[in-house]
Structure formats: structure tokens, C-alpha cells
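Entry for the shared binder. Reason: the reviewer on the internal report wants the predicted structure included alongside the sequence.
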Amino acid sequence: MDNNSFKDQLKLYLQRFWHWLRAILGRFGHWLRLVNQRFHLIRWCLLIGLVLFLCISVFYTYKAKTADVQNLKSALQTTTTIYDADNQKAGSLYAQKGTFVELDQISENVQNAVISTEDRSFYSNPGFDIKGILRSVVSYVVHRGQITGGGSTITQQLAKNALLTQKQTFARKLEEIFLAVEINRVYSKKDILAMYLNNAYFGSGVWGVQDAANKYFGKNASELTLSEGATFAAILRSPSFYNPIDHMDNAISRRNLVLDLMVDNGKITKTQADTTKQTSLALNDTYTQEDGYKYPYFFDAVIDEAVNKYGLKEEDIMNKGYRIYTTLDQSYQKAMQSAFEQNWAFPANAADGTEVQGGSIAINPTNGYVSAVVGGRGEHVFRGLNRATQIKRQPGSTMKPLAVYEPALEAGYHYDSVLQDKLTSYGKNNYRPANADNQYAGEVPMYVALAQSKNAPAVWLLDKIGLNKGVASVEKFGINVPKSDQNLALGFGGWGKGVSPYQMARAYTAFANEGKLANTHFIRKVVDATGAVIVDNSDLKSKQIISKKNAKEMTSMMLDVFNNGTGQTAKPSRYQVAGKTGSTEVPSSYGYGTKDQWIVGYTPNLVVATWIGFDSTDANHFLAGTSEQGVAPIFKLEMEKMLPNAPTYNFDTKSASTIAAEANNNEGSSGNWFDDIGSNIQDGIENGKNALKNAQEKANEWYNDVKSFFSN
């Protein structure tokens, strides 16, 4: 078949297809006209469209009316202030806020440049621009449901920056328009322009025209020249691309375009524009940032507690001028931060340069105040990973006092009870816990087993008192034990879920505070901009979970950890500290080392839990040696920096080794210190009181739950 024949044949087929398609479309059109005549289809479509438009309008009008537009200006002028435990200002929280100045303190050169580039009809439009909306609709269709920007008035941009997220969606665009109308109704154009210029980001880490004037040109916003004002309008287009510190050529090129736009808008003459284009930009950085977020990990934790526990919104916390009264001790916080800045106090980096990470937290055991927090080394990320409060790592032998030794005291054992120290198999799977040094004494007193962190006696004792008692004890200290981890490995912290330093520090408050588990918290009170108290933690109480006698006996044993046990190298000079070390081993194929290293130490008025390790452990990222080799230097440094600022203290007991030595030297004594009858009687009275108190607390919890259910 030649080409002409093929073309003729193809043309014939196309003509037939076209006739067939016209016939089908004709029939469909005829059917549609009949349906429309009978059912008024077009009218129904118009009606449904109008009803839908009305519903959308009502919905977004309601959202705009209920938004906090009335207080927008005051919110932009105020910052949320953080106070410490002594009600002294500790810093401030702010987002998208610079130094606020009124419009008469902003050069007209800036105002004219911004209006000429961002919104020429600003002084006449009702908050939105029809052409801009149409451009947004077209963009929405072209980009398949995503708005790429453009077409927003200054008022819309203010609504987006101050009241909405930056997510580009059609729904957010609609809300932005309705909010802009409401803002336009509430505020004058001068107020709107002032709020916009004070709320805009100008690159290089500065918000607001006043701070930007200091940052780039070393002057006030009222003093900016035509060239500088046009440059500011240029920066708004893309702060990272047009700021003159990083991209001078881009800034000048865009500035010149802005000058042409000002000519088109009648704000300056062409001669003024041409003359200004010939000038250079003289940079002069005199900006000094207020040191508001100077305790970053503590402030992060405050925000987390406000959001997760009290239901406040992050954007409200950052922008609405709250006064947040916290539990912060600034002297402790500065000391802890200073310690974490000393690289020598940490093990060496991995071969690829990865830093050993760490997290530490200090708690006042008498009132539950979290006094200081450091959640990591290196650059801080706002509300990023806080290793003091958020990680879950195996606690190692720091779990022994909670899971083994305290429940053993409750079961009738004493500090000097003799424990078996042999390599022993347990259960059907022949579980054989070994001591870290593979040395076994056959028998060992309890206080020695704890101080030397021996695994074999701890697991033997847990098996004797019963695993269920160990699990119940750990959960009594506020740490949930998953079913999968309820085995004898719990005796020395071998479980999958893990714990945070925050959880361990809270658990040890019971030993430091006569058996009372602290109700730990970061926030004491939150007051909003009107003066209303919206969070009040003034009535939080500790809960008695173990007897005062047992807490005292545990402390006597844990004093030996630092005096002559595994924590000797971590003991702060000139101070007595009780507590426990811990570590978790890596697979033998990695070499000799650990994955996690811990120390939890305390005095009667301070509990500190410190963890170090790599965020991700593998054959190339693990800690060489044991707890006292890795975590000891940083813990010792922290305590030596914090304890001089702590109240004077004395433990109400001697170390267990001292008590044992005195008992051996006093053979005529009818009993030892822990068996004192008067102490037992007093302890029985105390336990009775505690049981009654716990029952009352449980009843109150049930009542509050029922009350909350019906009130909701």
C-alpha cells in the first residue's frame, strides 16, 4: 500500500469515527436537555453550588471571628517569659518576633518599597485582591492541589505569618482570606502595615524591620535610605537568596528591580531610581540578639510539658505573652551546661568523628522540682531529641536497687544478709548471669554485692524473693515493665524497652527523700497575658512508696558505691554521694565495651541521673570499658560544679560498710542498727499511715475520673 492510499484510508476511518462520536454526543446532549427540562438539573447544580459556597463562607467566617484577631497586635509586641524556681526571670520564648516599632518609626522608603512590590492596592483593598485569588485558583489547578504562592496581599501575608501555618493548601488559602478580611475590619491600614513589617523575616536570623536595620545597616528602621528600603523589600522575596550579607550581587539586582516598581507605582521618579541604582550598599552589623533561649534543653522540656500534659499549643506558648513559672535552678543549670561543654569529660569520638552523646537531669527530691536538664552535646535543635527526657536505653545495674535490693529489704533481708555469689543456671533455658569480672566469692554480704555491682548475687536474690515482687517494685517506682521484659535479666537492667534519665532520677527520689516518690514536673504555674492562671501545680505532693527505714538502709548501701565500689572514680571531691552505676555490654564480636553507661547519684536535696552512649550503637560506635571509665568524669564534673550551690546537707546514716565494721567491733550489742525495736514500731505506725493515705489518694483519683467523665 502506497502512502497516498494509507492516508486516504486513515482519513476515511477518522471521518467515520467523528460521525460516530457526534452521534453519541448528540444523543447525550438530547438526553441531557430532556433531563434538565424535567428535573431542572442546571438549577439544582446552581443551587447546590450556592449552598456549598454559603456553607464554606459560614465555616471560614466563624473561624475568622473566633480567631484571636483582637489581640494580634499585643501578641506580636509581647514575649512569653520564663521564671525560675525563685521567681526570677530566666529567659524568654519567642517565634517570628523582632523589636516592635510603630509605623511612624519605620522609614517611608521601606513602606513605599514594600507596598510597590507586595500589594499596590493595599490602602484600598478589603484585605484581599480578586486578581490574586484568581491566580491562586489557577495555581491550585495547575499544580494539582498545591498552591505555590503569589497573589497574597500584605494583610493575607500577615494572617499567614502570625496566625496560620506555612503549609500551602487551598484550605489554608481560604482561611487566610477570611482572616485577612477580619484583620482589615479590626485594625487600621497603618496598624496592619506595622504588624506586617515587624513580623516579617528578613534573613540572617532576624525578624522585624527594626532588628533587620540593625543587622544589615547598623541603624534604626526610621533612618533607612531609599536604597536600603528597596533592599528590604527585595529581601522579603527570598530572605536566603537576596540578603546582602550572603548574596550582595543578588540583593543589588533585586533592589534595582524594586526601584523600577516604585517608579511604576508613582512613589519615586525615574531620576531618583537611576541615581540610587548607582549606589552601593554599606553593611554594618550592630545587631545583638537577646539571650532569651539560654537554657535550651530545659526550655524545650517546659514547652513539651505544656503541650503534652496541659494541652497548650506550641504557637500560643511562643507568641501569646504567657508567664511560665518553672522549677529551674539557674545555678544548677549553668553548672550542668558548663560541664557538658568540656569535651575532655567525655570519651573520645568514634573513628568517623561521631561524638559520644549524653543526657543528664537534676531533680530536687523534696518537692519534685526538675532543677536542670541537658539533653545532648553539639548543636541544639529546637524541640529536637532531648536525651535526658526522651530516650529509652537499657539502665544496666542502676536497676538493681529498684528491682532487687529494696524489695529484698521488704521481704526481710538486711544490708548484711549473706547472698550466694556463684555462676548459677536458672530456668529451662539455663540462664547464667555472670559477674563483669568473672570472679566469684561463693558468698557475699548484700551491701558488698550492691557496691561492687555483682550480677550473680543480684539475680540469685531476685529469684529467691520472686520475680513478681521485683517487677511490682520497679513499677512502684514509676517505671512500667513490659511483659516481654519480666524475666530474671531485670535484676541488672537487661530489658528491651529501656528508660530515660528522667525516669531513673525520679525513681531515686524515693531513696533520697525518706521513701517518698516525688511528683516531678517542670512547670509550677502558667499565667496568660490577661493575668489568668491556666496551670497551677502548687499542690503537688510526693507519694510514700517505701518505708523510711528501708530508704535509709538503701542509702547506707549506696554510699558504699562511691566510697569503695564501682563509683569511686565518679565521687565528687569533698562531698558524700549515694547512688548506683550501670552499663550494658555490647556483643563480644565488637570488642570489650558497653552500649550505655549510667550513674544515678543523690544527696538529701539533689538527685542527678546521667547517661552517655552513641545514638546508634554498632561495631564502630560503642563505649570502651565500663561505667567508671566512661561516664564517671562527666558525672563527677557536674556534681563538683552543682554541689557548691546546694544547701548544706548531711545523710542521716553512715555507709553500710562502716555500720558493719562498728557492729563487728561491738560484740556485746544485742542487735544491729537495723533491728532496733523502736525503729520497727515506728516503721509499723508509718506504714499504717501510708496505707491509709494511699487509699485516700486512690479514692480521690477515682472521684476525679468520674467527675471528669461527666463534665466532658
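Summary line for the report: The mean pLDDT is 86.
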